[in-house]
């Protein structure tokens, strides 16, 4: 049977793998798309159902999140009462119901998911049962004193995390947790004290765990210079530092090629840098970034892969006069439009910019404002990472 320490390490590794995957996909969460329009009603079906749950007589206040069958997020809406209804295009969906009561309410329901298959012009009935979640309660002390307003985060192996804030006496409660094992990470509001994560195994539905969290060590700081090739990385992004010793993670904003983290546990770190501009993000160890209690550490990190692009200049039929307002479209091997740019007064263009290695691409150039010019098509192009491939001068003819 695996030891308690082995199970704890496995949980932290799983949680961090999910975190890293999410951060590498996006820098900022895009605005959620609106619910399907009424004009598409003929192609949609309905999902209706009852919501069961014990609230002591008070009406339920929930949020319903809906996802595609592959868990791609689509949107959310509030649900008040004991029934729900939603119209969706034909397809497979996950509906997730989340209790809107505060995180500190130990009577809060755990999230409940249902899977539905929607057919156009039909109504699917799918009932939902909300069950009281597990809860973690306790106190946080930092440097031997109550840690007022400390942030407490509980993360499980199902890629879910829940958080709350301790009161002025360092007391906290975190309800509505699904059954399972949790790693509990705690952050001192003043970023002065730090401690190891706490492992809470096998919480049953509706069960309680009361814990004492201590942040006994002076925290350190880490400043990382991030380079793209041989120069400082331009742009902004949110970067995550992960302690190699405890698995705890901190997020900070990168600006002007530098990111700083405060309140860190001593030891070595790896960081997660998302895609920034044309540069592809990656996860790796910080060079020379060993954090010591009560001190600052300074390290560096380098992005090495830049997206490919095609460059050139569009001119008029005389072969020398730059053409402004020419459209340059780039298609992949399947014929899907990948990128489009419009030439400025210089006639110069860079199209693509974030291309991975591929072949069979096509560039089409045409005038957007004068249809008497014949379009130019350049086919069977290939591109590599870190490559700006010149297409030379492209002359549009009448």
UniProtKB/TrEMBL annotation:
Keywords assigned by UniProt, alphabetized: Carboxypeptidase, Hydrolase, Protease, Signal
PROSITE patterns recorded: PROKAR_LIPOPROTEIN
InterPro entries to which the protein is assigned, alphabetical: Carb-bd-like_fold (IPR013784)
Signal peptide (UniProt feature, chain positions): 1-34
Top-rank lineage group of the source organism: Bacteria
One Pfam family, short name: CarboxypepD_reg
Gene Ontology terms for molecular function: carbohydrate binding; carboxypeptidase activity
Protein name: Carboxypeptidase regulatory-like domain-containing protein
The organism of origin for this protein: Nocardioides szechwanensis
């Amino acid at each position: 049977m695996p030891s308690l320490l082995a199970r704890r390490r496995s949980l932290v590794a799983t949680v961090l793998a999910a975190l890293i995957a999410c951060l590498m996909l996006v820098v900022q969460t895009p605005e959620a798309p609106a619910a399907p329009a009424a004009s598409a009603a003929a192609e949609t079906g309905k999902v209706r159902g009852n919501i069961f749950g014990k609230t002591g007589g008070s009406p339920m206040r929930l949020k319903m999140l809906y996802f595609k069958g592959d868990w791609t997020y689509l949107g959310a809406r509030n649900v008040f009462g004991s029934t729900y209804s939603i119209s969706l295009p034909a397809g497979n969906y996950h509906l997730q119901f989340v209790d809107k009561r505060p995180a500190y309410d130990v009577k809060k329901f755990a999230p409940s998911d249902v899977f539905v298959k929607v057919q156009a012009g039909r109504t699917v009935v799918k009932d939902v049962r909300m069950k009281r979640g597990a809860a973690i309660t306790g106190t946080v002390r930092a440097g031997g004193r109550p840690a007022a307003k400390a942030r407490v985060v509980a993360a499980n192996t199902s890629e879910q995390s829940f958080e709350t804030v301790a009161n002025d006496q360092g007391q906290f409660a975190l309800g509505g947790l699904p059954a399972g094992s949790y790693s509990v990470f705690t952050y001192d509001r003043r970023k002065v004290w730090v401690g190891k994560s706490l492992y809470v195994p096998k919480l049953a539905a509706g069960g309680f765990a009361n814990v004492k969290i201590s942040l006994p060590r002076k925290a350190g700081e880490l400043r990382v210079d991030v380079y793209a090739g041989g120069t400082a990385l331009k742009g902004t992004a949110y970067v995550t530092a992960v302690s190699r010793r405890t698995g705890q993670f901190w997020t900070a904003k990168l600006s002007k090629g530098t990111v700083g983290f405060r309140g860190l546990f001593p030891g070595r770190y790896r960081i997660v840098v998302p895609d920034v501009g044309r540069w592809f993000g990656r996860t790796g160890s910080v060079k020379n970034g060993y954090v010591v209690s009560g001190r600052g550490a300074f390290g560096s990190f380098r992005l090495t892969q830049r997206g490919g692009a095609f460059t050139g200049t569009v001119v008029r039929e005389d072969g020398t006069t730059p053409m402004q307002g020419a459209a340059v479209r780039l298609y992949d091997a399947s014929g899907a439009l990948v990128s489009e740019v419009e030439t400025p007064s210089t006639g110069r263009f860079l199209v693509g910019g974030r291309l991975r290695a591929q072949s069979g691409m096509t560039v089409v150039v045409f005038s957007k404002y004068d249809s008497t010019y014949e379009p130019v098509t350049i086919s069977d192009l290939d591109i590599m990472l870190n490559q700006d491939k010149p297409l030379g001068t492209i002359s549009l003819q009448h």
